[in-house]
Amino acid sequence: MSTTASGDITKWAAKDGKFHRQVSSFRDFVEPSPDARFPAEAGRYHLYVSYACPWAHRTLIVRKLKGLENLIGVSVVHYLLGPNGWEFASPDEVPGATLDDVNGAKYIRELYFKAEPNYSARFTVPVLWDKKQNTIVSNESSEIIRMFNTAFDELVAPEYRGITFYPDELKEKIDDINGWIYDTVNNGVYKAGFASAQSAYEENCRALFESLERIEGILSSNEFLLGTRLTEADLRLFTTILRFDPVYHGHFKCNLKQIATGYPNILRWMREVYQLPGIKETVNMEHIKKHYYMSHVQINPTQVVPLSNGPDLDSPIVKPAARPY
Questions:
Q1: d(CA 270, CA 124)
Q2: Mean pLDDT per segment of 10 residues, for the chain of length 325 residues?
Q3: Pairing mode, if any, of strands 122-124 and 2-4?
Q4: In sequence order, what are the residues at sequence separation of 6 or more whose Cβ sits closer than 8 angstroms to the Cβ of residue 261?
Q5: Which pLDDT belongs to residue 24?
Q6: Residue 110 and residue 228: Cα distance in Å, rounded?
Q7: What's the pTM value of the predicted model, to 2 decimals?
């Protein structure tokens, strides 16, 4: 989720009425080799996130599930996206938020300019920061979760070593399902919600629900997207589905169906993922709802935040058939 270096940050759609997501600018990798430009080291890297952002949320989940919390620090921005972009706040001001105790920045944008003084694109989260070289390693969530998946395996506690959400035997299938889910669901809700032309909205909203029907069918026979094993495909989808009923259904006009009443298999799957150890701790529904309904004033000028948090994910209990990862 992002803000831009120039212009009105509320103008998400282009002149054609469609929303076009920016390609991430920083695409380096942390690697296990000591000779790498960014070698895996305990305490060297810091993660900047918003609890509201589904792209940042996926990095928090993998950090948690891979036991990286003692190796990689984290800072959380204010849920409100203001004229200067993502801002840091003390937990006294905004419960759940933090100040930036690494760089002392007031805004995320300062990190981008510190890494690249001539930076002119959007100021996105998540950001993976290298404290030794004082620069951004990556602002691409899909690649950060791949780093977290394997790069630090020699440094984590023994019980986390070898856990992978991108196993060799499933890589091709994961890449395939990630492709169409990203385009029509993860990004599809934004393409519908930020559309400023009726045709763009209808095209992307229909594509979204076609994919939800496809996912519902997959989960009618599978425990997870690719069988009995939890993979990064599930984690990438989960952060969007979690936000669907409380935000995207109303705020982004993705309203042909709700997850709670229209997709029983997706709902069962969402509960099962949410109830896995550690996942719930990465969810902050207050930040999620207040961000969307209060930041996107071009969509919701009153900034009134709806009451519903979506379906109850704590009950009923959904236990995995076997250890899923």
A1: 26
A2: 53 67 83 97 98 98 98 98 96 98 98 96 96 98 98 98 98 98 98 98 98 98 98 98 98 98 98 98 98 98 98 97 93
A3: antiparallel
A4: none
A5: 64
A6: 43
A7: 0.94
Comparing C-alpha atoms, which of 261, 237, 256 is closest to residue 310? 261
Q: How far apart are CA 88 and CA 67, in angstroms?
A: 25
**pLDDT for residue 14:** 66
Find where tokens 């899923």 sit.
324
Q: Which residue has the tokens 């032309």?
A: 197
**Cα-flanking dihedrals φ and ψ of residue 76, to 5°?**
-120, 125
Catalytic residue among 1, 9, 47, 53: 53
Please say whether the beta carbons of 99 and 79 come within 8 A. no
> What pLDDT is attached to residue 64?
98
Q: How far apart are CA 253 and CA 173, in angstroms?
A: 31
205 catalytically annotated = no
The answer to whether the CB of 211 falls within 8 A of the CB of 185 is yes
Q: What is Dmax (Cα atoms) for the chain?
A: 53
pLDDT at 2: 54
- For tokens 């035997």, the residue is 169
For 288, counting Cβ atoms within 10 Å of its Cβ (0-12 exposed, 13-18 middle, 19+ buried), the class is buried
Position 4 scores a pLDDT of 54
Q: How many CB atoms lie within 10 A of CB 168?
A: 7
Asked if 269 and 231 touch (Cβ cutoff 8 Å), the reply is: no
Picking from 246, 237, 322, 232, the residue whose alpha carbon sits closest to that of residue 291 is 246
